[in-house]
Design brief:
Blueprint (H helix, E strand, L loop, with lengths): L5 H15 L6 H8 L3 H5 L5 H17 L8 H19 L3 H6 L8 H19 L7 H25 L2 H20 L6 H39 L4
Helix pairs in contact: 1-2, 1-4, 4-7, 5-7, 5-8, 5-9, 7-8, 7-10, 8-9
């Protein structure tokens, strides 16, 4: 029997969903793409929703690979949104966007929420390296940036319109520049408290996500032990 790692299966699933959309990919398609029987695939993952949830985390990791903060707020922000733009332009779709709309999110709602919240948090962290940008302004710019870029991916898919993505990227960067140009509205000590609170919230969310993913993997392993096939 061919040995295929779980990481490879997740990578292949992510690529297939990018190319065809969630509803356009079946477990049989994924099994065929990795050279496994469908039954063997179910020994690793209980269903497509659980597999795609892990694939979504892989996409998030790829997006945030360029998010190392250097202290240069605008440059770091532009690096992150630029990476988002390139990924969306090359794949013509985002897994998170497809899972968020029109699907039963009973198994995928936590990973989807984590996907978008993590993007928002990294964009906020980049902007808040500048002392004049407070948490409310950073959150508004970050959310608008994610909304613009994800929305522009619709026109890439529907009409192959790359200009929509370029305009969205430009608007996101312009909004960041305006936020950075504003006078400081938060005292340094208040800003420090805000940052500490935000860091604590992000750590708590990360820990909760790890616990949920661990439970998810345990469910898959337990299910594989008792699953029988015709």
């Amino acid at each position: 029997m061919t040995k295929v790692s779980k990481d490879h299966i997740v990578d292949v699933a992510a690529q297939l969903v990018r190319e065809r959309g969630f509803n356009g990919v079946s477990m049989s398609d994924i099994a065929k793409a990795v050279g496994l029987q469908k039954a063997s695939l179910y020994s690793h993952f209980a269903n497509k929703e659980q597999l795609v949830s892990l694939a979504l985390q892989r996409v998030l990791d790829e997006l945030l690979a360029a998010s190392v903060l250097t202290g240069e707020a605008l440059r770091d922000f532009e690096t992150i949104v630029g990476q988002m733009s390139r990924l969306l332009s090359s794949t013509r779709r985002c897994i998170g966007f497809h899972l968020l709309y029109g699907l039963d999110l009973s198994l995928t709602d936590v990973p989807v929420k984590h996907f978008f919240v993590a993007l928002e948090a990294h964009l906020m962290a980049a902007l808040m390296q500048a002392p004049q940008v407070g948490q409310p302004a950073a959150r508004a710019v970050a959310r608008d940036a994610v909304a613009c870029l994800e929305g522009a991916s619709i026109w890439l898919l529907v009409d192959d319109d790359v200009n929509a993505m370029e305009r969205a990227l430009g608007r996101a960067c312009d909004a960041a520049q305006r936020a950075l140009a504003q006078e400081a509205q938060t005292a340094p000590q208040d800003r420090l408290l805000l940052l500490e609170g935000e860091n604590a919230r992000l750590r708590q969310e990360a820990a909760e996500q790890e616990r949920r993913l661990a439970r998810l993997e345990s469910m898959v392993e337990a299910d594989s032990c008792f699953r029988s096939f015709d």
